[in-house]
Design a protein that fits this description.
alpha+beta, 8-stranded mixed β-sheet, 4-stranded mixed β-sheet, 23 strands, globular
Length: 484
């Protein structure tokens, strides 16, 4: 059922939760949740009214109906010394300004340091536009909705902390991940939107084509996760991670959380026998999936009903997580730590010649809404003129027991995620993409040299070629810092 954008986000209720926590801090009121390791989890509905702009395509779409709700899901962990808040938002991407505003409000209410809060978008392509991308503009007022919902979810999770146990593990679902960038036979890759024929790979090539040679990169089939349960063994929350971009396959311009939401329901059903059990919070975060989807390009396209494929992917992922969950060893406590820093990355600005060409294309376009890829990227070229020469890219490292998390505000190439896992000083590590902001695609320098969609200069891909190397180097230092 669709509802008004502010439904379920009562400001009075939010202020009641956060105000009570602030008063507890200010007047020394006792914390009644008890000593030792504690955890709390909460969700907030952020499903908008129909008619809003949906992100995820070259041209804007208006939401025609709601297929399944969108949520903010939050997990708060407290080892008695350090408190962490981990939050996932059903959005294609979210701006740093929203996350920063929410962190400020949460810190004022709970005392959790902003550096200890990780917030990320899932990357469903059927959620309201929160970041200006291609020809979709942010839904008016939705930034305030996200800020309030994130704040309320974290505050409620913090208020609901109870004695808990924690575990970590990983499964693998290799059959649902494929590299979407392919080497093709010479002469079969079309010119890119800038009129160049220099691309050596093609994103999402024709399926079962005789022109396919091989994928241009690897995949990462692992599903690492953190599990929290009540002291009596009742499941409380799971935060999982998978290097899968999204699935899609919706019907019309529908609002949907994609497989991220399907996974939450499927795992909730498997662990609690009730898919609507709101006492348990399941979250799927987006890993290093910028060049990964669930399409096997070697085979012809099978036929799926709307939403069928995303549910199949989610069920496979939930089944594997539940299988490993049953084998976990839970601990009465876990060391928690967090630190933040940033790199300064250059922006790949268009040249004067690029701007002149783009202006001519936009001027000649038959419609105000750009129709062709050439027109869309010409418009992007003109908009990139407003970007600064350099930009700060916020990075965050988190420690949860034997697990390290690298929070990166980009769509991260799988090679970078594999590097983070291989070089971490922790037994297990994984990246969470689209975290704490949005700074476009993050290819490696080697993938930049191959060209292709993810490298095409636009507001979706503008960081300097060496940004990935800078980020990998920074995480080597950040992981050592939280490792202690």
């Amino acid at each position: 059922m669709s509802h008004n954008i502010m439904d379920g986000l009562s400001r009075r209720a939010f202020l009641g939760v956060c105000g009570g926590l602030a008063a507890q801090r200010a007047f020394g009121m006792p914390d009644t949740t008890g000593p030792g390791f504690r955890a709390g989890a909460a969700i907030q509905d952020i499903t908008p009214e129909i008619g809003v702009s949906l992100a995820g395509h070259f041209r804007d779409r208006e939401a025609g109906h709601v297929h399944d709700p969108l949520y903010v899901r939050s997990l708060v962990l407290d080892d008695g010394v350090t408190t962490l808040a981990l939050t996932m938002v059903d959005s294609c991407m979210a701006p740093q300004s929203v996350f920063d505003a929410a962190k400020e409000r949460i810190h004022a209410a709970t005392g959790i340091p902003s550096a200890n809060m990780m917030m990320a978008a899932t990357h469903t392509h059927t959620a309201p536009t929160a970041v200006p991308i291609f020809q979709s503009e942010p839904v008016p007022g939705y930034d305030a909705v996200l800020t309030e919902a994130i704040s309320k979810a974290v505050c409620e999770a913090h208020a609901q902390r109870v004695p808990a146990q924690i575990a970590w593990g990983a499964g693998a679902v290799p059959e649902e991940v494929f590299n979407r960038r392919w080497f093709m036979k010479p002469g079969t890759i079309p010119a890119n939107p800038f009129g160049e024929t220099t691309d050596q790979v093609r994103m999402n090539p024709p399926r079962a084509s005789e022109d396919l040679i091989e994928p241009a990169g690897p995949t990462d089939p692992e599903i690492p996760f953190i599990a929290v349960r009540h002291a009596d063994g009742t499941p409380l929350a799971v935060l999982a991670n998978y290097a899968l971009h999204y699935v899609g396959g919706t019907e019309g311009a529908a609002i949907s959380a994609d497989y991220f939401g399907c996974f939450a329901r499927a795992l909730t059903k498997r662990l609690t026998q009730n898919p609507d059990n709101t006492a348990f919070v399941a979250m799927m975060s987006n890993g290093a999936s910028a060049d990964i989807n669930n399409i096997n390009f070697r085979e012809p396209a099978p036929s799926f009903a709307p939403y069928e494929k995303m549910n199949l992917v989610a069920e496979n992922a939930a089944r594997e997580v539940a299988r490993v969950y049953d084998q976990l060893t839970f601990h009465d406590t876990a060391s928690l730590a967090a630190c933040t820093d940033a790199i300064t990355a250059g922006v790949r600005h268009p040249s004067v010649a690029d701007i002149d060409r783009a202006q001519a294309i936009v001027d000649a376009a038959a419609q105000d809404v750009m129709q062709t890829a050439e027109e869309v990227y010409a418009r992007e070229t003109l908009l990139l003129q407003e970007y600064p020469e350099e930009i700060a890219v916020p990075l965050q490292a988190l420690r949860i027991g034997d697990v390290a998390i690298a929070a990166i505000p980009c769509e991260v190439f799988v090679e970078i995620g594999l590097h983070i896992k291989a070089t971490s000083p922790f037994p297990r590590a994984f990246p969470i993409a689209l975290a704490n902001g949005y700074n476009g695609y993050l290819p490696t320098a080697e993938q930049h040299a191959l060209g292709g969609y993810e490298t095409w200069r636009a507001r979706s891909s503008y960081l300097e070629v060496d940004a990935a190397q800078k980020i990998k180097a920074k995480f080597a230092a950040l992981f050592q810092q939280v490792h202690g």
